[in-house]
Amino acid sequence: MRTVWPSEATDFTPWLGDNLGFLDELGLGQLLLVQVEAQLPGLGRSLDILAETADGRRVAIENQYSVMDHDHLTRGLAYAVGHDARALVVIAEEHRAEFVAVADYLNRCQEAVGDEHGIAVFLVSLSVEQIGEVYVPRFTVRSQPNAWRAAVAASESGRLAGAEDFIAASEESIRLAAGQILHDWQQLNGSSMRFGKASVSLNLRNPFKAGGGSTSVFLLYTNGQLVLNRGYLIDGGVAPESVLTVLDGQIRTLYPSARWGEKGYYITIPPPPDPDSVRNIANLLQQQLSSYAGASSSRRFTDSSTDVAGIPPAEPA
User: Fold this and answer.
1) Per-residue confidence (pLDDT) for residue 115, from 0 to 100
2) Coil/strand/helix, residue 269
3) How far apart are CA 221 and CA 225, in angstroms?
4) Is the domain covering 8-156 a CATH 3.40.50.80 domain?
5) Which of the residues 16, 78, 146, 235 has the least number of beta carbons within 10 Å of its own beta carbon?
6) Rounded to whole angstroms, how far apart are CA atoms 166 and 151?
7) Smallest Cα–Cα separation from 163: which of 143, 147, 131, 186?
8) What is the DSSP letter of 43?
């Protein structure tokens, strides 16, 4: 792992925060980044990554090189409790049998008390396979709760099937505007949409994410509420300081009644949604992404020293 990410704190953790899609297939469901190095008030140390599932459950992620020890497991549990997380993921190169047994026991307890009160524990092993000049990360689950996988499957089964279903499920007063927003979004290069039970995530392809990953820009709900994911844009590299000033000015002009969340991570815009304002912000971001695609992103992800997962090998000593 140190060949690819020399430092766990400064190399691996930021990379994983930008590539949480690697954990999607482990039974966790789709994860959205909330914060890297998430601190709790009064504590000098911070959780490596705080994420959330598509249905809003928080997930605490703690990373460790080499063999997982009791300090990382108990600290991770403490952080999960402090952040009101419903799951803890501990990633290490190796998990000893006794800690797998502890995690299995905790997962039986979680299943007994239920998802609303328990904390599911995922122990995940990480290795890196070198194939020629390419480095490929391999994530393997060593312990997980059966109930969580069932809940993810149930959540996925209740999702809206597409734009027509979303519009039909929306309040009548906002259907026309919602339909226009979805139509406009489909016309953008690199756009995608992910539908939930009562919402749709409007995404743009992000050249700073490996494998053609995307960043969620807006969440539009069937009641007409719109959420701008300002924090995702910052954490994903879409809105650096030079762009953030322009973006914030546009947000305040277009949405004077919007409610800014803690640290401006989420911006909640009351109904009805305005297609023109959504289009204006999308155009600004797409111009920025286009400039990345033609310059820095190509150097970062298509250089011959970069692997298929976007992981450059460490510089020679």
Assistant:
1) 64
2) strand
3) 5
4) no
5) 146
6) 22
7) 186
8) -
In our burial notation (b when 16+ CB lie closer than 10 A, e otherwise), range 96-115 reads eeebeebbeebbeebbeeeb
What is the largest distance, in Å, between two alpha-carbon atoms of the chain?
63
**Helices and strands in the chain, H and E counts:** 10, 12
Q: Which two tokens stand for residue 262?
A: 């803690």
Q: Which residue has the tokens 């090189």?
A: 65
Amino acid, res. 277:
S
Residue 234: the pLDDT is 80
Which residue reads 């792992």 in tokens? 1
DSSP 306: S
In tens, the pLDDT along 134-161 reads 777 888 888 888 766 555 555 555 677 8
Give the integer Cα–Cα distance in Å for 302 and 49. Answer: 27
pTM over 0.90: no
Q: Comparing C-alpha atoms, which of 182, 181, 261 is closest to residue 228?
A: 261
Compute the C-alpha angle 15/307/189, nearest 5°: 75
CB 95 within 8 A of CB 125: yes
Residue 252 phi/psi, 5° resolution?
A: -70, -30
DSSP line for 76-135 = HHHHHHHTT-SEEEEEEEE--HHHHHHHHHHHHHHHHH-TTT--EEEEEEEEEEEETTEE
